[in-house]
Amino acid sequence: MKQIRRLQEHARGHRTDLDSVLDAASVGTLATVVDGQPWVVPMLYARDGDRVILHGSTGAGALRHVAAGSPAAFCVTLLDGIVVADTLFDSTANYRSAVVRGHLTVIDPGEAAYALNLMSDSLIPGRSSEVRSSTKKELAATLTMALPITPDGWTVKVRDAPPELPDDAADSGGWAGVVPLRTVAGDPIPAPWIGTDVEPPESVYRLVKGS
Amino acid sequence: MKQIRRLQEHARGHRTDLDSVLDAASVGTLATVVDGQPWVVPMLYARDGDRVILHGSTGAGALRHVAAGSPAAFCVTLLDGIVVADTLFDSTANYRSAVVRGHLTVIDPGEAAYALNLMSDSLIPGRSSEVRSSTKKELAATLTMALPITPDGWTVKVRDAPPELPDDAADSGGWAGVVPLRTVAGDPIPAPWIGTDVEPPESVYRLVKGS
């Protein structure tokens, strides 16, 4: 029984496992160390091959600190279900999580437009082809960073299983199972100045249909 | 225009803002510092008045490190919508996030059963009244910790607004707005050994209906 328990929640070692977790979410938590203290901030991100692209405002002081080469850890978590077991002890969650560790680098201004397109298309697939390119002024106001994915610099943990069978048969008899959770998109809400005759673009339709 | 921009994404200073963000989620990212490096792990949690209760297995080595009094930061993020603006630069997300900073303490064994009930009821409201209490053996295998919420030890940031109006009128004309996101529960999936005649408990029905 205990062996089964240990098998159900475990580390995944294939790089494709990491990519699938990173590609399934849009927001993660960036952590670094500032004056010996842990410092965290939620950030939008996108994976670009062997690196994670993050971006924020150049006005964010602590982001500059991170960008200056401090060690960083970036954590992404997807809550996939609530595991209802026979006991409180065995009740838990099904989830996928990834941590990428390394040193952030600031993306070269020459590459920043590419990175910003990638970020936008990760959040709203296809959006970069519907609007104009970013201007130099916009790119200058964006701090775009990259966290390299190195062979030893990441971990993935997944729990995707029914509840444990109770250790004591006296605990069984009731219902046990999983309540799956998923994120869905609702009807698009036009900005207050948008007339009712203006149709949402293809990218927005895809976002709603794909959820 | 820039003043409006700064107003749309901002810190919230009322303690009720913090409580509403913490009470709306079940999983967060715990960060600490180990050997000068940032260390992060996703954790289930529940708020209990002026503290955040977290729990994990006593087998998790780094958790013990945190429990031993290291400084910690706990970050919760809810992604509420995708903000589709006229430009890539202004495209972003609506979200709620909270960070609680402090030093974790291990919860006294005498209080651990109370904390575990609270954790379970936060994940599955009402579940603790449907099953037996946790045994001494189960409580001994659970590391339950508390992160106190102090007046200066937290920050909340929220973006809940339509896209920015473009700085340049030439950029406007297309659709702009928000695609709202929410988490929904699907049909409960019984564990493989549960007969089709076994009805899910009230707590599971509430979980599915309430989502």
Automatic annotation (TrEMBL), chains A, B:
**InterPro entries recorded:** Pyridox_Oxase-rel, Split_barrel_FMN-bd
Q: Which Pfam families match?
A: Pyridox_ox_2 (PF12900)
- Name the residues that span the membrane: none
Q: Which PANTHER family match?
A: 5-NITROIMIDAZOLE ANTIBIOTICS RESISTANCE PROTEIN, NIMA-FAMILY-RELATED PROTEIN-RELATED, FLAVIN-NUCLEOTIDE-BINDING PROTEIN
Kindly provide the name given to this protein in its UniProt entry. Pyridoxamine 5'-phosphate oxidase
Organism source for this protein?
Mycolicibacterium setense
Which classification does the entry list for the species? Bacteria, Bacillati, Actinomycetota, Actinomycetes, Mycobacteriales
